[in-house]
Design goal:
The chain has 113 residues and is mostly beta strands. The strands form two sheets. Strands 2, 4, 5, 6, 9, 10 and 11 form a seven-stranded mixed beta sheet that branches. It is globular.
């Protein structure tokens, strides 16, 4: 079993920055995919950034968000700059370990205008 623990969410003014972290623990041999999704109230969960060695971003966050990973620590990060009110959502990390996808508990990010 794999557990993902997120941290780093909070309240920030528009234009500000936050850094999310997600650490995996448990039966980990290798992590194929690490990424971040988000879900705003009344909306479906959407991909924000994914890294598999290659990196993909949601168009609206390109140039503002950066995903990075520390394989030695089984941790993925999301650096979020120039935040906008429309970035407000619950952010979830996800990892694929030996073909099984795991999710974090979610962390709230609120951007005030």
């Amino acid at each position: 079993q794999v557990q993902l623990v997120e941290s780093g969410g909070g309240l920030v003014q528009a234009g500000g920055s936050l850094r999310l972290s997600c650490a995996a623990s448990g039966s980990i041999f290798s992590i194929n995919v690490m990424g971040w999704y988000r879900q705003a109230p009344g909306k479906q969960r959407e991909m924000v950034a994914i890294t598999t060695g290659y990196t993909n971003y949601k168009d609206s966050v390109k140039g503002r968000f950066t995903i990075s990973r520390d394989n030695a620590k089984n941790t993925v990060y999301l650096q979020m700059n120039s935040l906008k009110p429309e970035d407000t959502a619950v952010y979830y990390c996800t990892m694929v370990v030996r073909g099984t996808q795991y999710w974090g508990q979610g962390t709230q990010v609120t951007v005030s205008s």
